[in-house]
Amino acid sequence: MEVLFYRLSGSTLEATVTTFAERTLARGGRMVVKGAGAARLDMLDTHLWTYRDEAFLPHGRAGGPHDAEQPVLLTTSDEVPNGAGTLLLVDGARLAIPALDGFERVALIFDGSDPQATEDARTDWRAVTETDHTAVFWAEEDGRWVEKARSG
User: Any idea where the domains of the chain sit in the sequence?
Assistant: First the structure.
């Protein structure tokens, strides 16, 4: 499995999460978005409800009675009650190597202008490269995502 690292430098976190969610749902998959704090997840929740008038992106916040039914679940927990195959780590949520095997796809999105977020992503990259998983680093160039590095 590949663990994808996305360094934000032009796009917003909200736009990037929306794109991931749309593509995951289009493939018939489910996704869990794990953040480090509730405030940022509140912002993502609002964005996913309002980002486009003609679109509906079904999602929910963890802790409700219908967590298992949510195609996209926003959480700060390690639990995955919706059976998601895609894990998106945002806003400082850290990678847990033992949990990787429970997913088909894992992506860590970090702010490239934040030195601490960049250092944390480097630490997680090194941890992935010590496993049998492949780490893939993506960066934005001219409004497009470009693969910059790949381990093993």
Answer: 2-150
Structure tokens at 84: 């998601």
What's the pLDDT tens digit per position in 57-78?
Answer: 889 999 989 999 999 999 999 9
CATH assignment, 2-150:
3.40.50.10110
Starting at the edge strand found earlier in the chain, the sheet holding 72-75 runs 60-61, 72-75, 31-35, 86-90, 105-111, 2-8, 134-141, 144-150
Could you read off the pLDDT of 108-135 as tens digits, one per residue? Answer: 999 999 999 999 999 999 999 999 999 9
Q: Encoding tokens for residue 141? A: 């160039």
**Residue 29: which region, alpha, beta or left (left: phi > 0; alpha: psi -120 to 50)?**
beta
* pTM to 2 decimal places: 0.93
